[in-house]
Amino acid sequence: AVPAGWAVSWHPGYPSMHSKWRDMLLGTNRSVLFFGNRGFLGFRSLYLDEYRDRLFIGGKDVLYSLLLDGASMDAKEIYWPPLPGQTEECFQKGKDPGTDCANYIRVLHPYNRTHLLACGTGAFHPVCAFVYVGHRGEVGHLDPTSVETGRGRCPHEPSRAFASTIIGGELYAGLTADFLGHDPGIFRSTGTRSALRTEVDQRLLNDPKFVAAHLIPDNNDRDNDKAYFFFTEKVVEADSKEHTIVSRVARVCVNDAGGQRVLVNKWSTFNKARLVCSIPGPGGIDTHFDELEDVFLLRTKDGKSPEIYALFSTISHVFQGSAVCVYRMADIREVFNGPFAHQESPHHRWGAYESRVPYPRPGVCPSKTTNQPRRQYGTTKDFPDEVLHFARAHPLMYKVVYPRHRRPLLVKTDLPHRLRQLVVDRVEAEDGQHDVLFLGTDAGSVLKVVVLQKTSLAMTEEVILEELQVFKAPVPITQMEISVKRQTLYVGSSLGVAQVRLHQCETYGTACAECCLARDPYCAWDGTACTRYQPSGKRRYRRQDVRHSNPVHQCLDQNLTGESVEEKVLYGAEDNSTFLECVPRSPQASVQWFVQRPPDEQRDEVKTDERILQTEHGLLFRKLHRHDAGVYYCKTLEHGFTQTVAKTALEVIASEQLAHTFSQERGDEALRLPCPRPWLAPQAPKTWFKDIMHLISSQNVRRVEEYCARLWCGSSRPHHHKSKLAQAKHALAGVDVGKKGRTTKAHSEKNRVPRQAVAT
Ligand SMILES: *[C@@H]1O[C@H](CO)[C@@H](O)[C@H](O)[C@H]1NC(C)=O
Ligand SMILES: *[C@@H]1O[C@H](CO)[C@@H](O)[C@H](O)[C@H]1NC(C)=O
Ligand SMILES: *[C@@H]1O[C@H](CO)[C@@H](O)[C@H](O)[C@H]1NC(C)=O
Ligand SMILES: *[C@@H]1O[C@H](CO)[C@@H](O)[C@H](O)[C@H]1NC(C)=O
């Protein structure tokens, strides 16, 4: 069924979006673009087309094409539901018509200069079709004559993990290719080469969960091109009892044609190896991160040696954590060139195969090297049966692939959420290159992290630069795409797709030191503001020190603290609780509180105890004493740089003072209420009474109003209208409301607390 108000189009004429969507699409903030609403979009796939400047989004029964130039909003959609008979059958086979029996578009790849290949689950009847997108994405229609079965190209299930990539007009896909999800394989289809798949054999693939597929060429000889698959699978090797699942990298030759008599229409060059990502644990037993969550290839210019960033999590119930390991192609190739894993019989241990390996060595692609005058192996169909038999019996390499420096780049065990997605941006900063990691959680947020190498290679320091709450609801982030060109990150979840800027330098504050302490490699102080660092920039006052963040050194001639801290005034009732707010701009900073009490000018450090608590967000007085009155300074310390972040004058209203006021009759002229101390009066904002309002939460609004007016020396009549007082009654915060405007601003500047995107 088509949702009400939705413009349906099958082939010609793609109407503009429903107005409701348009509002959500552009949102009110340019920094966050929101697309989709709860349960409707059914987001499953994303293809960022930098050339056409479009984002193609695969949803539930719909494929969207979105122009990324925000100024001229343009979105098209292609409605592509399953055939009615298929929906019916899906329903009858016991699948949920609401969630399963639709066409979830999961495969979305550029195919050639004019077409995309799109495949959907088709209500458990996978379908594929070519979608015309023109040279500039101008039209966008699905070629009805190209619709064909998507079996072996797209999973049946709307949410099961799979991976695919297009190489030379062929789709390479790792997935389970049947209704029940029992037939896993790596498949090649679509183009002119022969269709191939892996044999159904647990030694090859044992309940795999595919994560990524990529073409990584070996050298300039295209005949050596290989497709790599990253996945987890169950272990069959007998002697690795402690690992029920492991992560793998597997590869096949792009020019594999299968065997002639053995392995007909099956891969003859398939090999796999284990990816290890572990940290030393107690008692010499390593803690392994075995569950592969995501893989990101940081491509190099030649394309042959990308750095492989892999995100893992533990499967242990005892220890929860995530880790990022980085693998080098040289190490992966070395393992594939090393010994094969071998087992004499099911009773023997696995070992390295040490006898003669037949020629051409299994896993080697037919190329100039194998096609010599005396040994003509122009295609895998020419390979001797002996080679194919050996390949079939030895899919696994004996050695394992270790990450760079043999340890994770990043380990996170203290996070409340699991990390699910990873993209990496290599950023040019003044002190060299830095890799910034964007990590999507299962709770709708994205962490932006930079990992800094310390002087010794074995030491790293990670800095969480930002935590962006992209979706209000705690949904898992399912896909992220980075546009270096647009300096934007596109984040997908079941609720939709959001757009987030890679950097928001201006949020780091208005002082050189703050910009420096942020240690964001994207940002630098240009003499007047914290702005995007341009490596080639000619601007002079560049101050940036990502590695050490020493503001004293970097900002010597600059104003260290930026705007001077304004004094806030806070009134607290004696014996009541009160709260002095102070959140450091940087989570790495340590906070110290000082107090200056009126008679002596000396500043003392605030002594905390069970009555006065120092919390993450400020200083909490559980029970205010008269002698607590004074000026409080919140100072942060980071890398030897101290900064006063907040200055609050705390005024304590004695309990008899309050009691006295309420005992007074209305209209009594003989008031003898003390004035606030003179040193407070000039700054005292006129709305301070709201503080008292919520503190005493009196039922008698008029009395409070009166009390406030009296306490506010120099004013005998209430300043504020009833409505305001009524509002004040609902004021919640125990913090200084008087300078609300400024407090709020400070909040939005901080940005270390989750940034809120448009609600879902
Ligand atoms: C959204 O836009 C408004 C108005 O331009 C701005 O005040 C607010 O800070 C923005 N919010 C975010 C999260 O960027
Ligand atoms: C792209 O592929 C489609 C589907 O095979 C085909 O119809 C179209 O002509 C191709 N376009 C180009 C420019 O090769
Ligand atoms: C430092 O601050 C003062 C006053 O706030 C201002 O006049 C001056 O221009 C600032 N200097 C720099 C280098 O920003
Ligand atoms: C706060 O002050 C009000 C009014 O003086 C009083 O009734 C209330 O008990 C106090 N609350 C605490 C927690 O001391």
UniProtKB/TrEMBL annotation:
Domain Ig-like: 574-651
Name the UniProt record assigns to this protein: Semaphorin 3G
Subcellular compartments: Secreted
Organism domain of life: Eukaryota
UniProt keyword list: Developmental protein, Disulfide bond, Glycoprotein, Immunoglobulin domain, Secreted, Signal
One Pfam family it belongs to: Ig_6
Biological process (GO), any one: neural crest cell migration
CDD domains documented for this protein: Ig_Sema3
